[in-house]
Write a structure and sequence with these properties.
Elements: E1 2-5, E2 11-15, E3 22-25, H1 28-33, E4 37-41, E5 45-49, E6 54-57, E7 64-69, E8 75-80, E9 88-92, H2 98-101, E10 106-110, E11 116-117
Parallel strand pairs: 3-10
Antiparallel strand pairs: 1-2, 2-5, 4-9, 6-7, 7-8, 8-9, 10-11
Length: 120
C-alpha cells in the first residue's frame, strides 16, 4: 500500500500499490510547486480530509484541478476535470516519506514546450 499525507496530516491519500514510475514536469505550475506526480485511476485512490477542506486551483483551459491543504498549504494531488474526460488522479509523492519513494524511477516530462517525456 502507498500512503501519503500533507505536512499537518489534514489530507491523506492512499493507493493499493506504489507506482512503477513518477513524473517530474517543468510546466509553469509544476515547476513552482516542486511536485513529483504518481498517476492513478481515481477508483484506485482513497483521499480523505480530517476536517479542513482542500483548496482547489485551476487555470488556463481548466482541465486540471490542483488540490492544496487549507491548513498547511501543501500541494497534495490533482485531478482531471470532466472537460478532460479522464478519471485520473495524480498524487504528489513528496507527501510520502522519502524512504518509501526514493527508489521509484523519476521520468521527466516537458510540459513547458513539447508535451513529451524528455527521458525517452
Amino acid at each position: 500500500m502507498f500512503q501519503a499525507e500533507c505536512h499537518c496530516g489534514n489530507v491523506t491519500m492512499s493507493a493499493i500499490e506504489l507506482p512503477l514510475s513518477v513524473t517530474s514536469c517543468n510546466c509553469s505550475i509544476c515547476h513552482r510547486l516542486g511536485a513529483i506526480w504518481a498517476y492513478y485511476d481515481l477508483e484506485d485512490v482513497e483521499i480523505q480530509t480530517q476536517g479542513s477542506p482542500v483548496i482547489i486551483y485551476s487555470w488556463g483551459e481548466k482541465s486540471i484541478e490542483y488540490h492544496h491543504c487549507s491548513k498547511c498549504g501543501c500541494s497534495t494531488y490533482y485531478t482531471a476535470t470532466e472537460s478532460k474526460g479522464s478519471d485520473m488522479v495524480a498524487i504528489n509523492i513528496r507527501m510520502a516519506p522519502a524512504a518509501v519513494t526514493n527508489s521509484i524511477p523519476v521520468r521527466y516530462f516537458d510540459g513547458a514546450v513539447t508535451w513529451q517525456y524528455i527521458d525517452e
